[in-house]
Amino acid sequence: MSASDPNKLISKADKLTRLSLTRWNADWKSATVLYEQAANGFRVARDYENAKIAYEKASKGQEMLASPWDAAKHLESAAALAKDLSNWQEVGDFYRRASELYMECGRPQPASDALAKGARALEDSKPEEAIQLYTDACTILEDDGREQMAFDLYRAATNVYIKLEKYTDAASFMLRLGLAADKCNATNSQCKAYLSAIVIYLYAHDFKQAQQCYNDCYQIDAFLRSDQNRCASKLLAAYTDGDVEEIKRIAQSSAISNLDHVVVLLEREAPTIDLSTHKVSLHSYNRSLDLYDKI
Amino acid sequence: MSVVDILFRVDAICHKYEKYDIDKQRELNAYGDDVFARLYAAVEDAIQTAFNKSEAASTEKNRATAAALNAEVRRTKGRLMDEIPKLRKLANKKKDQILKWMSVLDDFAFLHFALCLGSMLSLASNNGSKVLVAFQDDKIKYYHEQVKGLTKEDLAIRQDLVLALPERIQALPDGITGAAIQTSGWNANSSQPQIKFDSPEAPLDSAYFQQSEESSQFRQEYEMRRMKQDEGLDIISEGLDTLKNLASDMNEELDRQVPLMDEIDEKVDRAAADVRNTNVRLKKTLTEIRSSRNFCIDIILICVLLGILIALK
């Protein structure tokens, strides 16, 4: 098949859809068929730009034909091609539209999938956009009551946050993960999420916050009874003592190694940070406690 | 008849005719009159058995058995050392109180008989009587001494024997007194003499608790093995941690897939019902189309057509 054929198909389809004096109603059905064929032809010919455009038009046709499902599908293909073209803005737009169409069909699962795909595509180039997409995807799933699917999304979002060095956001995402896991009774994931949150706080030199987080999590039964709880308490004790060797040893332990690899990397790097600064903050913390006692 | 039965029978028979066993009677009665001698004989026997045991222990390959035998030897030694003061007391006795009377009675009877005989014989001949009298004198002197108690030599011998006993008992090898006796070992605490374990009365010499090469080697080996076991267990525990993690992740994943499977199940059921419906309808339609009535009509019409064609030709 030469490249001209898809072009011809495209022009024919365009003619079908363009309203003019001779044509009062656009013939979307045949046009869509032609668009799809053209898009396939372009893809085979590796003409991604034209293929993308063809897919866009095909999806529009499907919309007109009141089949949002097919429309969404076409948009996803278009978005994948846009990713190959590194056209990031379009990628985000396409995936969003696709997810909206999926929601129209009443299928939240594919909607969140589309958003997740978009987010993954945009992780490197536009991380904030990616995070936004991840958050929206998680929201969709939570509304649908399928939190379990959201675990992976939360983890991915946390990874992006850590890459951006936005540790508080990362930790809060982990806590959201813990909450979702709690609803599904997925205790292992929950405990891992809490432990990851504590580790992230510690890496961010926010010992107080880490301690607070630990206290909060301690209230939860499932965490209380888990290995991760013991590991967390050991870790916090090691930090209060400023014992670098102990921290290194705990980082090698299995409870930490089974967390997300990004968190593990953080934990392994953690002992190298200057503990003296954290000791200062600790002293201030203790002094504030003493003041309380005096009162 | 089994071997056990034979043995039992032999035992019964021996027991019945024990009194005809000369050796045994001699043994039993040998020192029957003498408490010291009996006790001494018992101690001798014990020493001999202990010695045999220690020999067996030294040749024994199995450490546990060797250790057990050594322990027995040590216990025996302790017991024997406790018996020694008794023996000493007995050795120093000149007169055997109880048996003295028995022997005196015996001797009196014999003496009486001898005197009667002598008198009878002296009546018979004058010369023989002198010898007899001399013989009687000797006998009387001998019995006199017997009645008096042990001879001085015997007494001395007995005391020597008793003195020699402790050394002999200590000399029994029991696995503790090994090669390195010269180096000073752990000085035993002898501040509480009342409390007695299986330990000899002689002061615990410095080499008593010295670890022999064997035992220190043994201990080392034990420590090494224990360390290796600990290492192995650590590795196993790590592996188990990984397994546990994997298993719980798999568990959660399966939990996640349960509702999806339910959905698939539902959808497939619906699709299957649709297909069945369609099949039924199709079958009905086909049977209707291919019903025999239509078939006959088709054949008749075909025949008519052929007829027309032939007619035209």
UniProtKB/TrEMBL annotation, chain A:
<keyword id="KW-0472">Membrane</keyword>
<dbReference type="GO" id="GO:0016192">
    <property type="term" value="P:vesicle-mediated transport"/>
</dbReference>
<dbReference type="GO" id="GO:0015031">
    <property type="term" value="P:protein transport"/>
</dbReference>
<dbReference type="GO" id="GO:0016020">
    <property type="term" value="C:membrane"/>
</dbReference>
<keyword id="KW-0653">Protein transport</keyword>
<dbReference type="InterPro" id="IPR011990">
    <property type="entry name" value="TPR-like_helical_dom_sf"/>
</dbReference>
<dbReference type="Pfam" id="PF14938">
    <property type="entry name" value="SNAP"/>
</dbReference>
<comment type="similarity">
    <text>Belongs to the SNAP family.</text>
</comment>
<keyword id="KW-0931">ER-Golgi transport</keyword>
<dbReference type="InterPro" id="IPR000744">
    <property type="entry name" value="NSF_attach"/>
</dbReference>
<protein>
    <recommendedName>
        <fullName>Gamma-soluble NSF attachment protein</fullName>
    </recommendedName>
</protein>
<keyword id="KW-0813">Transport</keyword>
From TrEMBL, chain B:
<dbReference type="Pfam" id="PF05739">
    <property type="entry name" value="SNARE"/>
</dbReference>
<keyword id="KW-0812">Transmembrane</keyword>
<comment type="function">
    <text>Vesicle trafficking protein that functions in the secretory pathway.</text>
</comment>
<keyword id="KW-1133">Transmembrane helix</keyword>
<dbReference type="InterPro" id="IPR000727">
    <property type="entry name" value="T_SNARE_dom"/>
</dbReference>
<keyword id="KW-0813">Transport</keyword>
<dbReference type="GO" id="GO:0006886">
    <property type="term" value="P:intracellular protein transport"/>
</dbReference>
<feature type="domain" description="T-SNARE coiled-coil homology">
    <location>
        <begin position="223"/>
        <end position="285"/>
    </location>
</feature>
<feature type="transmembrane region" description="Helical">
    <location>
        <begin position="295"/>
        <end position="312"/>
    </location>
</feature>
<protein>
    <recommendedName>
        <fullName>t-SNARE coiled-coil homology domain-containing protein</fullName>
    </recommendedName>
</protein>
<dbReference type="InterPro" id="IPR045242">
    <property type="entry name" value="Syntaxin"/>
</dbReference>
<keyword id="KW-0653">Protein transport</keyword>
<dbReference type="GO" id="GO:0016020">
    <property type="term" value="C:membrane"/>
</dbReference>
<dbReference type="InterPro" id="IPR006012">
    <property type="entry name" value="Syntaxin/epimorphin_CS"/>
</dbReference>
<comment type="similarity">
    <text>Belongs to the syntaxin family.</text>
</comment>
<comment type="subunit">
    <text>Part of the t-SNARE complex.</text>
</comment>
<keyword id="KW-0175">Coiled coil</keyword>
<keyword id="KW-0472">Membrane</keyword>
